Predict the 3D structure of the following.
Amino acid sequence: MRRGFLIAFSGIDGSGKTTQIDALESELKAKDSRVLRGWSRWRPILSLPLLAFFLRRGIAEIHSTSSIGFVETRLPWKRGVSSVWCLLVQLDNFMKTTLKLAIPLVLGYTVICDRYALDLLVEGMADLHDPPTTKRLGYRFLRILPRPNIAFLVDVDPEVAFSRKPDLPSLAHFVERVGLYRVLSPSLGEEVLDGRQSRERIHELISNRVRTVMNGRRSG
């Protein structure tokens, strides 16, 4: 049995990626019922004891958003404990995401993933305020997640995203993350979509690209 088809969408909150996922999901389901939608975001499991320690010490803070909270750390250590934290967080991400995707892909489903490896990598680096050149072991786990057949980054300026969905505490949080998305996306093979275009135009670009890749896969 051929592996299913994985489409990943990445982008800062407020980029408009969920709108595009809704449109693509409706389009694909009209032709094939074997379409599923997944969502990747960190939930602490292995990392929970260390998170509790950080919170007690006052060196981490949980910020609430409209979707799910995120953690921002202020660790005094650049190595050692911070590398262990990164490893545990990304192991949580790797296990959760792999479990969500493995069975549907083995069964041949088309899976549309809202947030994927790039988003998890960006959030991990932003949490620790790591530069994009950082080579922590934890980050490497995200690069061995199932490879998407197509990966899209919906790119918008941080000011636009902040005005649309001010979930993060400040504009500076958006600036840091958008910068990471832009630097890291080429290494993960993301196809960048200009989020300033109309919703209809972005959907047209996505739909045409997905159709081309799917048709090429069937004929290959």
User: Anything to note?
Assistant: The radius of gyration is 18 Å. DSSP finds eight helices and seven strands in the chain. The chain has one domain: 5-42+93-219. The first strand starts at residue 5 and ends at 10.
